[in-house]
């Protein structure tokens, strides 16, 4: 059912305490495990579930004890930390990401993203892609995300990522609600220091009366001025609410490996959870033939 492959050999029998995690706020997926096998940093390992390759990555950290080794492996997004120079002139976002990755020999599967990108970048590959997706989300009002699928970067729409694993839900849950990130007024201004123009303003008067003024200022370039009102509307929709979250322990029965960050899952728990909620983070542990998952939901 599970295999850990190094140089064509299954080393699972000599390995234990396998865990893996993904989070919307981190660069990629990481796998940690203990093993009697001595691997070197930079070695490539694969993790297979039901004969399907689920993870491929590089050993980036190693610690040695008296009788065994502990390893941390990261998927190929490890290389997205490379800093580059790239200019885009009126190219749609999906084509911009494809062009960037192709230049550095990285294969990709990118959903169509029509937002136009006009910008010069001097930063990491990851930061460039994050900025492009941020522009697209503000322009389209659609949540996009990226992740590595073996050796291919995939960019998809969150709304398309519904999963239905079979799990046993743990004990009662606690739901937290926060207005720390709430914004009920949005100003779109010029990114040029000499230009003090306000391109668009949108606010929720009812929420301002209830919570007080919580304002966000977003800067855009002059050439994107026509999108200002649309960006303001989408930002208000994104920020003008209390954020709810909860952490849940699950025992995986079937297809638990599909549980990862940037998925929508439906867990009906009494009157506390109904409908499809976003997985912000997922932490898996595989020990003694039990697959346990702790997830953080956010909505």
Fold and architecture overview:
InterPro entries: YqbQ/XkdQ. It comes from Clostridium sulfidigenes. This is YqbQ/XkdQ domain-containing protein. There is one protein chain. By secondary structure, the protein is α+β, with helices and mostly antiparallel strands. It folds into 4 domains: 75 residues, no CATH class; 78 residues, Phage tail protein beta-alpha-beta fold, CATH 3.55.50.30; 73 residues, Elongation Factor Tu (Ef-tu), domain 3 (Beta Barrel), CATH 2.40.30; 55 residues, no CATH class. Helix content is 15%, strand content 49%. It is built from 4 helices and 22 strands. The strands form 4 sheets. Strands 1, 2, 3, 4, 5, 6, 7, 13, 14, 15, 19, 20, 21 and 22 form a 14-stranded mixed sheet that branches. A 3-stranded mixed sheet has the order 9-12-11, with helices on one face. Strand 3 and strand 4 form a beta hairpin. Helix 1 packs antiparallel against helix 2. The longest helix has 16 residues. The radius of gyration is 22 Å and the shape is globular. The two termini are 33 Å apart.
């Amino acid at each position: 059912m599970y295999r850990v492959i190094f140089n064509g050999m299954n080393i699972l029998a000599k390995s234990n305490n396998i865990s893996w995690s993904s989070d919307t706020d981190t660069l990629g997926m990481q796998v940690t495990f203990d093993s009697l096998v001595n691997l070197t940093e930079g070695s490539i390992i694969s993790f297979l579930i039901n004969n399907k390759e689920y993870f491929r990555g590089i050993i980036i950290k190693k610690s040695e004890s008296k009788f065994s080794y502990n390893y941390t492996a990261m998927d190929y997004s490890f290389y997205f930390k490379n800093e580059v120079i790239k200019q885009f002139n009126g190219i749609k976002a999906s084509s911009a990401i494809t062009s960037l990755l192709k230049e550095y020999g990285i294969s990709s599967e990118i959903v169509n993203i029509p937002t136009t990108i006009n910008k010069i970048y001097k930063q990491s590959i990851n930061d460039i892609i994050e900025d492009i997706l941020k522009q697209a989300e503000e322009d389209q009002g659609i949540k996009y995300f990226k992740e590595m699928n073996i050796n291919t970067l995939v960019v998809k729409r969150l709304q398309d990522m519904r999963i239905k694993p079979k799990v046993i839900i743990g004990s009662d849950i606690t739901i937290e609600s926060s207005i720390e990130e709430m914004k009920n007024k949005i100003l779109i201004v010029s990114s040029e220091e000499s230009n003090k123009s306000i391109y668009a303003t949108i606010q929720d008067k009812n929420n301002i009366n209830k919570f007080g003024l919580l304002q966000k200022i977003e800067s855009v370039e002059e050439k994107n001025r026509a999108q200002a009102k649309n960006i303001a509307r989408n930002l208000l929709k994104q920020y003008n609410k209390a954020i709810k979250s909860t952490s849940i322990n699950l025992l995986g029965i079937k297809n638990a490996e599909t549980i990862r960050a940037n998925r929508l899952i439906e867990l009906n728990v009494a009157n506390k959870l109904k409908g499809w909620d976003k997985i912000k983070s997922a932490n898996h542990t595989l020990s003694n033939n039990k697959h346990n998952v702790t997830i953080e939901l956010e909505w």
